[in-house]
Amino acid sequence: MRSAVVSSTVAGGTDELRALAADSAQMLRGVEAKTGGYVRLLDTAPGTLAAVDSVLSDNGGSIVELLTGLSTLAEMTNPRVPALQEFFFPTQRAGSALDALSMVIRDGGIWGLVNLYPRYSCDYQVPRHAPSVPDYPEPYLYTGCPANDPSILVRGANNAPRPPGAAIPGLAPPGADPNATTGPAPIGPWTIPLPIDDTRTTLQPPR
Hints:
Residues 157-207 are annotated as: Disordered. It is a single chain. The chain has 6 helices and 2 strands. By secondary structure, it is mostly helical. It has a domain at 2-94. The chain has a two-stranded antiparallel sheet. Strand 1 (105-106) and strand 2 form a beta hairpin.
């Protein structure tokens, strides 16, 4: 009785068994064709793994520092994934940064387009210095463009992807002096005294 059940079960799955046998034969033919590669892999694997183990044991301290640095890099990069995606795969134009580079450098030359249409210029609302006076003032801390029109500042700092709650660089925080400048530059032995007058300035060697 049991033999009859087994036989009927096998008979009912004849087509599936034939398909399994055909697929198994094809797979084994592929394995047979790659036998030399498997043999080479098994022959070289012990030496390669031993070399890797030696490198890890000789550079254990450096690897720990490397992994620590990679962890810090991951923490900084993870919240800025939208900005990285916008750089490599921008949504405001077709293609990616690599596609744009391949369009610029091609056919043995560098190609470009010149657009003479006047562009919008932003008024940063900070005092301007006369460019003819060689006094080299310290730069302003807050020179963000105050315009909020997204059609003007599509790629400006106001619209750059950033983590939620991150400060917008270049814009003065509430209560800060909008005309604040950076600290004075350090003075060294080769520093030229400012402002420069019309006479020739001679540098004195350090003592």
